[in-house]
Amino acid sequence: MRAAVLFGPDDLRVVDKPVPAPAAGEVLVKVAMCGTCGTDLKLQTHPFPNQPPFGQFTPGHEWTGTVAALGETVDELAIGDRVAIEAHRGCGRCDNCVLGMYTACLNYGNVAKGHRASGMSVDGGFAEFALHHVSSLYRLPDNLTWEDAVLVTTAGTSLYGLDAIGGYVAGQSVAIVGPGPVGLMTTQACKALGADPVVLLGTRRSRLELGQRLGADCTIDVRSEDPVVAVRRITHGLGADVVIEASGAMSAPQQAVEMVKRGGKILFLGFYPAPVTFDLSAAIRDDVTLYTTRGEGAGAVRRALSLAAQGRIRGRELVTHRFGLEQIQEAFRVVREREGDPIKVVIVP
Ligand SMILES: [Zn+2]
Ligand SMILES: [Zn+2]
User: Fold this and answer.
1) pTM for the full model?
2) What residues does the ion ligand 1 have nearby, CB within 5 Å?
3) 90 C-alpha to center of ligand 2: Å?
4) From ligand 2's centre to the CA of 47, what distance in Å?
5) How far is the CA of 284 from the centre of ligand 1 (A)?
6) Average pLDDT value over all residues in the chain
7) Banded model confidence at residue 174, pLDDT cuts 50, 70, 90
């Protein structure tokens, strides 16, 4: 098969590789589409601790496709089924995995103990075929497209975070900072769960407009209005019940503390390029609760798929660019240089 392989820092090449054979509990999937994301840029430049070695590793953790072969004991799916995936498969034996917190698996990266993070600690989906454990695959509802499936892990990230903060956001004001894929899927999830109003803040007009089309009650261009002032204005001076930080901007944590209501909640979903500084004492003084979650977990992807099938969250509108596998370097150039304001760039092997 053809597969992208990382040969060294920022040296991703498409080469021939044997089609992997599914072990017991595994499924071989013919990849239909694989999304690119900021994590892919990071792990190409600075390999993650549990990443397979240069010359072997195929990244790609947002993939979807059709079941091509089943390993021993797999009877949950059939050849020809369309499936969505979630990247993480926990070891299933540590304390956290038993509780469904498999993105915080205590055996993270330990393949021998059963953990795998597709496209991070084992080979992923920038290839014609990919393997995954059956527990991380979901039959794709007929009315969903490959594009919807690619975004479902991202939507799972939103729902897992909302789960952590208590989930019941109906009637609550939510300010979402950062209209990237996570922010845009979170906007839709909050609307689907009844939050009111949902305010989306960002710097890029095209993304804010998409956020509006996807259900944000109001959008704030933070280049023309101070984000804290805007959120306080919209919430009648009180601040938002919930602030969801999905931008990863260094200034965002401080703004989150300033725009949240006294007694409110801040959920951090973004990753930052360096250690951040913000006024933690202000959060303590105002009885603000801070939450973090990593990726998707605890059945969040299954719920995201259901919301998507019901038409309550839409993934396909986030896909702005498509490239063939042989054009993967060009695809990452577009992602890196943000050429044409890409939101989700996908590879179609
Ligand atoms: Zn990702
Ligand atoms: Zn585990």
Assistant:
1) 0.95
2) 37, 39
3) 5
4) 22
5) 32
6) 96
7) very high
Q: What is the pLDDT, as a whole number, of residue 297?
A: 85
Cα 50 from chain centre: 19
Q: How far is the CA of 150 from the centre of ligand 1 (A)?
A: 10
Tokens standing for residue 191: 């609307």
The amino acid sitting at 271 is F
Which whole number is the average pLDDT over 53-70? 97
Q: Provide the token pair at 67.
A: 């079941």
Domains of the chain, CATH where assigned: 2-151+315-348 (3.90.180.10), 158-292 (3.40.50.720)
pLDDT of residue 128: 98
Q: What is the whole-number distance in angstroms between the Cα of residue 274 and the centre of ligand 2?
A: 27
Q: Please tell me the number of the ligand nearest to residue 110's CA.
A: 2
pLDDT digits (tens, 9 = 90+) for 28-43: 999 999 999 989 999 9
Residues 299-306 have a mean pLDDT of 95
Are the CB atoms for 282 and 90 separated by under 8 Å? no
Question: What integer is the mean pLDDT of 340-344?
Answer: 93
